[in-house]
Amino acid sequence: MKSIKTPVQIRLNDIDMFGHVNNSIYNQYLDCGKIEYMLRVLGYDALFGEKSMVIVHIENDFLNPCLLTDELFVITGVESVGEKSVTMRQSIIDKKGEVKVESMSILSTYNTEEKSSFPMPDEWLRALKSFNNS
């Protein structure tokens, strides 16, 4: 599984009273990785077009706390592609490579006009395959 590494900036308001990044913030960091992956591999319309993709499931494992002084990156890749969905694996790591969070999410195709999913377009399948094989 080929992946994309996205730097993340920790903001002061991300920190809780214990000096850690609050658990509610990690999905925002993961979204930064998803956006970069989708834009680079599938293009703008896959995020913001009439036929796009939406998150339908997320699982996070919080392994190590993130602190304000950490330099963080989100590693994002697509593990598998289904008829109407993709399974995405992500990690939040620090600059030393310590894994802070492991995440799995499922994104489904979604037509905003029809309010329903649709079969994965051939051009998206080709783009995903091409990226993973490059």
Write a structural description.
This protein has 134 residues and is an alpha+beta fold. The protein has one domain (3-124): Thiol Ester Dehydrase, Chain A (Roll), CATH 3.10.129.10. Helix content is 24%, strand content 38%. It contains three helices and five strands; from the N terminus they run βααββββα. The protein has helices spanning 26-41, 45-48, 122-133; strands spanning 3-8, 51-62, 72-81, 85-94, 99-111. It has a five-stranded antiparallel beta sheet with strand order 1-3-4-5-2. A hairpin with a 4-residue loop joins strand 4 (85-94) and strand 5 (99-111). The longest helix is centred in the first third of the chain and has 16 residues, at 26-41. It starts with a strand and ends with a helix. The model has no long low-confidence stretch (mean pLDDT 96).
Can you tell me the CATH superfamily?
Hotdog Thioesterase
What is the CATH C level class, in words? Alpha Beta
Measured on Cα atoms, how large is the radius of gyration? Answer: 16 Å
State the secondary-structure class: alpha+beta
Report strand %. 35-45%
CATH fold name: Thiol Ester Dehydrase, Chain A
Q: Could you report the average pLDDT, rounded to the nearest whole number?
A: 96
Count of extended strands: 5
Summarize the structure.
A hairpin with a 4-residue loop joins strand 4 and strand 5. The chain has one domain: Roll (Thiol Ester Dehydrase, Chain A).
Topology, element by element:
Blueprint: E1 3-8, H1 26-41, H2 45-48, E2 51-62, E3 72-81, E4 85-94, E5 99-111, H3 122-133
Antiparallel strand pairs: 1-3, 2-5, 3-4, 4-5
